[in-house]
Please model this.
Amino acid sequence: METSMNETQQQAKETVFRAPDRGDLQATATVDREVRRTVGEARVADPRIRCNDINVYYGTAQAIKNVNLDVGRNEVLAMIGPSGCGKSTFLRCLNRMNDTIDGCRVTGDILLDERNINAKEIDVVPLRAQVGMVFQKPNPFPKSIWENVAFGPRIHGLARSRAQLDEVVESSLRRAGLWDEVKDRLDKPGTGLSGGQQQRLCIARTIAVQPEVILMDEPCSALDPISTAKIEELIDELRQQFSICIVTHSMQQAARVSQRTAYFHLGDLIEVGNTEQIFTNPNHKLTEDYITGRFG
Amino acid sequence: MSNQTLPLPRPVDVINTGLGRRRAAERRFRLYGVAAITLALIFLVLLFISIIGKGYTAFWQTQIQMEATLAPELLDIADPADRNQVMAANYGAVMKAALRQAFPEVSGRAEQRQLFALVSSGAEDVLRQRLLDDPSLLGQTVSLWVPAGSDIDMVRKGHIDRSLPESERRVSDQELAWMDELAQQGRIEQRFNWNFLTGGDSRSPEQAGIWGAVVGSFLTLAVTMLLSFPLGAAAAVYLEEFAPKNRLTDIIEVNINNLAAVPSIVFGLLGLAVFINIFGLPRSAPLVGGLVLTLMTLPTIIIAGRAALKSVPPSIREAALGVGASPLQTVTNHVLPLAMPGILTGMIIGMARALGETAPLLMIGMVAFIVDVPKGIFDPATALPVQIYLWADSPELGFAERTSAAIMVLLVFLLSMNALAVILRRRFERRW
Model:
């Protein structure tokens, strides 16, 4: 009752806010901005993850409203949208990181290989090994570089000996494009690296447990353009093996790295589609407003 | 429109006019700070001067050289091979004989009693030990240094003013004369007071030692630490990392904060009622003292531990959970090591408070007069602050210097504990 009222209020506010400066410049956009059902193709043929009717509540406030979305195999799915639109919240549903937030409630089915990972009885420990995550702020452990990467494989028992661990550490760092920069100081603290290196270390830490899906929550927001370019390159390489969901505020980044893009607006999934189509020919007015820089 | 006709002053000029006042305020504030620190330092120095000035003499002891004949008939030893006889022999008689021999002119009961008081009753222990070490000395005359009586000790250390008229001082002219005679013969000396550092308590100040109380305090604190650290740390970790946030945990949190403010004597009464009366644990034992101090220290450790855990950035927890660590692995591998310095600080604060705590120990009988150095946590014992309290309460002049000396020992104990804490914290500290 309350949430639906909030929704109406919010919609009303949006309408009032944007009413004056509407021109009919966007001949391409066909769906009006008051319409909140998802436009575009949310489903793919052979999904890695399929989300059905996801709703997320923080206490009584609803952060995600009835989202249906698929993540394909070997694809990068970019999630864009203005701040507070729920894209990070949605991302965190996919490996149950929202469990750690008090008062957060997620409803709906999230199928990973036909298994509902949003079910109560699912053990989040193997799930998070399967669906890895890279956070907005680089957060290496205040331990050595080696320890940072070896932590995951060790707690999951993926390597039996120190030699095997060394191997995993090296291959993960290589794939994260960090090996050559740190191979001589693996015993130095990971927190002593530069921001971009730290973020690549976090990516190495994530891929060391060989996940099937990698979630990235604005991984480049704290980085300079050169580090960002390196990480984008890395994302493109990782796509060969993993499915990647990336939340980003940079539309150029979304356009560069992703195959599909989802546009979120105030908890609604507004439009999904091929990245090229979204950025050149959006079907929803809100998407159009956002990517043309009208707001957000 | 009046703005245009009346130009506003430039902001820089406005700022400059107020600058002097701002600087003065800043200087004033710094001055207050320096004054406060100076005042605190002055008091601290005064405290140290007062304590050390009064107490250092307790580490020295006046000793008198005596020639004693270990005559078997005086000692009442029939068989020197029998240890029990040697232990129970009448060494007082030998000591008195030796004193009479040294001052043959003394006669009369009152005078003789004064004479015998020249030497501490601890002299008998010295004699006994000598004979136990070497039984062949029986029947021979030995020369040995024995502790002087407390009054003589006090005169030698200057705590009794010789210039006062005889009626106003504890030591008679006669005693002073004997003392001076011994001094002239070079038979009176100040020696380092090992007995103070190694002995237990005594009714006679010159024989009272601090070691019993040190061991008592050590055992009590060991029990406290072994119980309160794991309990406190585990409680803090559970409440902070695992417990659901609901009304019950809120109530628990409020009550832990309340417990930290409960006067320690209440914990003492609780310990008396529960540990001694219900569980039947021994009275005056360091075990009970440790249990009571654990109750008292736990809230401090839990509160400090929770604050330390809270200060670990959530990004570390997310990072660990994100690669699939279980909540326990997250805590033991990452959160706890980072919080450890803070938890240790809390523990040291709690332990330092426990070390200085007197009131609860009075309630559970650790205030008893205990001569023997405790050998375990079930033996009757006292603790340093209680010993200080007991000595400060004693009327004998000799206990005054011992009270100050005991405070010095307590401070050394405290300082070494804090030093240990700093070392521990350094080892656990990690950089981000």
